[in-house]
Each structure stands twice: as C-alpha cells, then as structure tokens.
Write a structure and sequence with these properties.
It is built from twelve helices and eight strands. By secondary structure, it is of the alpha/beta class. The protein has one domain (2-35, 64-91, 121-298): 3-Layer(aba) Sandwich (Rossmann fold). α2 runs antiparallel to α3. Bound molecules: thiamine diphosphate and magnesium ion. Residues 163-165, 193, 195-196 line the site of magnesium ion (MG).
C-alpha cells in the first residue's frame, strides 16, 4: 500500500484534549445536531406508518456521526452531495426542519415544494446539492462540481457521499479516474453501513476494504470509525485540507451502521440478526458523544436531557407545520421543471 497509505481515524472520542479546542459551542452544536437528526427520523418513521408520508423513506438512524463529523470539517461555501439517505446531511447543513418535514409530507412549503420528497432534499443556498435516487448517480455529479470549482479557481471543495454498494457502480470508477487524472478538489465519503438493501457487502463486492478501491486510480484511501463523530471529523479535515491546498481527491471509507431497515418497507430481520443490530447499537454515536461531554465536564446530565427535549419539540413543531401546510396546487404541476 506504500503510495496509497491507509490512515485510520482515531476511534476513541473520549480520549481527547485535542477535541476541546473545537470549543464548547461547536461541541454542543455537534451533539445537538445528531440528536435532531435522530428525533427527526423517528418522527418521520411514525408519520410514514400513519401514511402521512408516501413513497420511499430511508432513515439515517445510526449514521448521524458521519454527516455531523464530516460537515463540521467544512466551510459553509463547500459543497455537499449525497444519495437518497439524505436527511442527516440536509439537517446538519442547517436546512429548516419545518421545510424538510413538509417536503416529506409532499407539501407546498417543502424545500422542493413537495415535489422532491425524501430522496431529493436540496438546499442550494446552503450548498447542499441533493439528494439523488439513482445509486451512484451523484458520484459523477460531485466530480463535476469539483471540476467546476477548479475551472473557476474557487476556494472550495466538494464532499461526495455514497453508500458501500454504490462503489460497485461504473460511475464510481469513472469518477475516481477523472478526479485523479484532473486533480480535482473532491472528497469521496463511502458510508459503509455493511448492506446495500438486503445484500451484505461481502456478497456484492469483490473487495470489502472499500478504501482500497481508490488505489487503482492513485487515490489515497482512509478508513475511519463512523460511530465516532471525532474520528470522522479528523479524517475529513485532513482530506479536505488536501483537496483545498493541493487539489487532490481522497476516498474515505467510514464504517457505520444503520439501525433500521434499508427503507421503511424493508423487513430487515430476513438478512441480519437482532443480535448483530444490538451489538452495533452498543457503539451508538450519540451515547459516545454524551459520555465525552460528561467526562470532559462540557455539559451536565440535566443539560443533555434538555437538549433532547428541545430536539423533540423542534421536531414535533416541524410535524405540525408539515401537517397544516397546503398541498401543491394543481397549476404548479409544470413549474420548476427546468432551472
Ligand atoms: C442504478 C440503481 N440501481 C438499483 C437501485 C435500487 N437500489 C436503491 S438503494 C440500493 C442499495 C444501495 O446501497 P448502498 O449504496 O450501500 O446505500 P445505503 O442504502 O446502504 O445507504 C439499490 C440497489 C437504484 N436506486 N439505482
Ligand atoms: Mg449500504
């Protein structure tokens, strides 16, 4: 692996004086964002089971540290683009939970006026460029955004997220080749949650150490613990620095886990055991962050409880907002088809 050294992120978030330099506000904000994502997803699952949300719904529960740790390492002007499991990324970027919930409900007050739904969260003002339903479809788009950054000599990077199964798509390989050839400021983040729908990674991918897939194109690979927000932050910070200063791509494999099925209609009990899920939950990213905040005396238990209450309140008012919002009017059917 000489030229394409593999670097592991730190896996013990409670070990760290260095993280205190992020400052109390930032640390609390990271924790509260993970909480907001989890409560948002739980409320979305409930609304889906009440048939208030139609179509597909892919939840991010368990993967919160990936969006939060990675986006904490970015500047506001940096771009992000991801697949359909996109709620966590949009919330972390600061998209309005009311509008996001309304989008799930198909309402006119939603981020895309109710026409995009769960898989197509967008917030152009916050440089969140989707939300893409075709597996691997966002990878060439993210690569193209990085090309645009370089072509216009902008001081930005593009973080392109994907699932583990997307690394078996041709679009992944074509993108990595061009990103390396043209030296593009892109960071590819593979959210390896071990499954593509009901298929375990070792049944679909010849190489299961996904960070190694960059080596065919001379792209440095890193692997990091996706249940630890600081490990994700460290790896992404390093890769972003390389993209910004040297205009070089990196492939980061983030090992994470989704607690729920692939989507709301997936009976996950047929391809994995409850024991496996319970085992993974013991590494819960939110619980790890709580332990860190308490150990380092950054927050008290009472404050942590309050943060959770506030996240629940914010989410229930988002549900109320979505429920009381109007449907898109029929006349709007052909609006916004082209920019
Ligand atoms: C091109 C294409 N093929 C198949 C599908 C159906 N499909 C939707 S999600 C998915 C699995 C993708 O898994 P992964 O990339 O690991 O992402 P995860 O769902 O685990 O976040 C498949 C096969 C699709 N949406 N697009
Ligand atoms: Mg997956």
């Amino acid at each position: 692996m000489s030229d394409y050294a593999v670097k592991a992120g730190k896996s013990n978030g409670s070990a760290g004086e260095e993280y205190l330099s992020l400052g109390r506000n930032k640390l609390i904000e990271m924790h509260r964002t993970m909480l907001l994502i989890r409560r948002f997803e739980e409320a979305a699952a409930k609304a889906y089971s009440q048939q208030k949300i139609g179509g597909f719904l892919h939840l991010y529960i368990g993967q919160e540290a990936v969006a939060v740790g990675s986006i904490a390492a970015l500047r506001e002007e940096d771009y992000i683009i991801t697949a359909y499991r996109d709620h966590g990324h949009a919330l972390t970027r600061g998209a309005d939970p009311n509008k996001l919930m309304a989008e799930l409900f198909g309402k006119y007050t939603g981020t895309s006026k109710g026409k995009g739904g769960s898989m197509h969260f967008f917030d152009v003002a916050r440089n969140m460029l989707g939300g893409h339903a075709i597996v691997g479809g966002q990878i060439p788009l993210g690569t193209g955004i990085a090309f645009k950054i370089k072509y216009r000599r902008e001081d930005r990077v593009c973080v392109t997220y994907m699932g583990d199964a997307a690394t078996n798509q041709g679009s992944f390989h074509e993108s990595l080749n061009l990103a390396a050839l043209w030296k593009l400021p892109v960071v590819y983040i593979v959210e390896n949650n071990m499954y593509g729908m009901g298929t375990a990674i070792d049944r679909a991918s010849a190489v299961t150490d996904l960070y190694k897939k960059g080596s065919a194109y001379g792209i440095e690979g890193m692997v990091t613990d996706g249940m630890n927000v600081f490990a994700v932050y460290d790896s992404v910070k390093e890769a972003v620095k390389k993209a910004r200063e040297l205009s070089l791509p990196t492939l980061i494999e983030v090992r994470t886990y989704r607690y729920r099925g692939h989507s709301m209609s997936d009976p996950d009990s047929v391809y994995r055991t409850k024991q496996e899920v319970d085992e993974e939950k013991r590494r819960d990213p939110i619980e790890q962050m709580k332990a860190f905040l308490l150990t380092e005396k950054i927050a008290t238990q009472k404050e942590l409880d309050n943060f959770d209450e506030e996240a629940k309140k914010e989410v229930s008012s988002a549900v109320e907002f979505a429920e009381s919002s109007p449907q898109p009017p029929l006349e709007s059917m052909y609006d916004d088809i082209y920019v």
